[in-house]
């Protein structure tokens, strides 16, 4: 088929002085930062759903997206052609990974067997394009929220037949992900929650969700899939409350149901803000538990209270993300996945390039800033000094679990009063960060 972007060549790094909107100003994939290339630190991934399937509609109007390669049908042939367009785009952009939902890449049929057959036909082309370009699958997942059968949820549905259908769909999606060499698989509970507690048995639904995930773990072992499992937090929308509401809730669920050895977290900025947290908070919570696996790179509009999935351009945000990622030594099976869509008013194909270039440059700047902050050392030194009372004496005994209330009481009775606190120096530290941005 003819090129979908015939006037666009492979995007090149031209440096900060470049005025070319189709060039990287900061993302130089081969540049070495703390012993690794930018490409290896950032592990950029393009999502199939927003980039190649989103028609840019909203509740008040039809889609505006101009996509000349799409013939408007829901045919397998159109889906296969779309794969070739997608890989042309990703190859010219220079991203090493992509991610997909099963129903994004292949049309849903009138039965499960027909849907599976459609997916097989498209996976064949995905495999061909991966081999041709060297682009890899970061992770796959199943769309368990769009079809009306999932109105009450999937793994948490009150209908056992829906639970069974969801299990069959995930089974097939896992097989497709394995066949494509996917480095992970994500569970996002878009409708695993409730709209009202008047008709909801929370305990039963959570038990069912845990059973579902344990079945997935067992099937993963059975087929020999080596990829990492992830669960993705989101507090609401489309449901009133989703059980995977934030990082802490997910970790609590995984611990309660003995799943911590099998799933890490895939975190998203817009989901974090909907939960009332910053992305930095969510990443630090997950990293502290050794459970930060991957991130969806986007942002929300602070003036809007829903999941706007905008491309990240805030350098403070990307610097904070990279400080956490660098502190843990980098992502392994996960990556920086652009779960973001262009605005409804940005409807031309070239806008897809502008959006991704901006996001990649923003994260590249964040990486360089985070590396500079780490090299400077003042921030880390301040934090270390702030907790220095735990490095020796009674503090060290507390951390090692070698003391008790009786001894601590005696310690304070002898001292008469706790040592005075030191200032948190928040403003000074904020000024310090500004030195690098």
From TrEMBL:
Q: What does the UniProt keyword field contain?
A: Carbohydrate metabolism, Cytoplasm, Isomerase, Magnesium, Metal-binding, Xylose metabolism
Q: Which reaction does it catalyse?
A: alpha-D-xylose = alpha-D-xylulofuranose
Read off the NCBIfam families from this record.
Answer: PRK05474.1, xylose_isom_A
Entry similarity comment:
Belongs to the xylose isomerase family.
Cofactor(s) of this protein: Mg(2+)
Per the record, its GO cellular-component terms are:
cytoplasm
Q: Which residues form the Xylose isomerase-like TIM barrel domain?
A: 89-294
Please report the name of this protein according to its UniProt entry: Xylose isomerase
> In which compartments does the protein localize?
Cytoplasm
Could you tell me the Gene Ontology terms of the biological process aspect for this record?
D-xylose metabolic process
